[in-house]
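Mods, move this if it's the wrong board.
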Amino acid sequence: MKSRKNSVQKLIGFENFTKYGVKTDKSEFVFFHVEPTNISVLSAANIEAKIHHLTMLLSMIPDLELTALDSAECFDANKSHIRKRLNKENNKSVRRLLQADFDFLDEIQTEMSSARQFVFCVRFRRENDEQIFKSVNRIEKFIAEYGFIVKRMTKSDIKRMLALYFGTSISGDEIPDIEGENEFISEVESDENE
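Not the wrong board. Structure tokens:
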């Protein structure tokens, strides 16, 4: 009997990208990117209004799921590990190196993840393409009507989000559809030019 290795794709049930989002073994997900609002510059009345609009939106679309993500990879676990090592380490040279690593992670995290991404998500379980199309347009319209700047996420946007979530990209660079595809194309082009 052959042993088969499960890929991450198989483990999370990911099947493929669709016209509207991502298909898994259980449902299709459609994602909407929502621009964050800097509430620190809003009055109390405006903040209350934003909360009321979000409440109304969620009552209109009860299946709407919300996600807040860093716009770049978070290094909190790494920094926590280094902090623990610093507390236990007696060798001054090693402590200096650990402190330098901690400072570096702190610096790049500050530069890269000062912003959050807000994503609304809707699951479709049994709907056909036409039903999904109508629902997606209706949902996007509702979100906009309640005062949110919204954009349905494209395949490229979703790949960037997944790359950050799974830690395959520090800055959210898009991952190719086929690993190594760019190197192969470059090699073929250089062979043709010779």
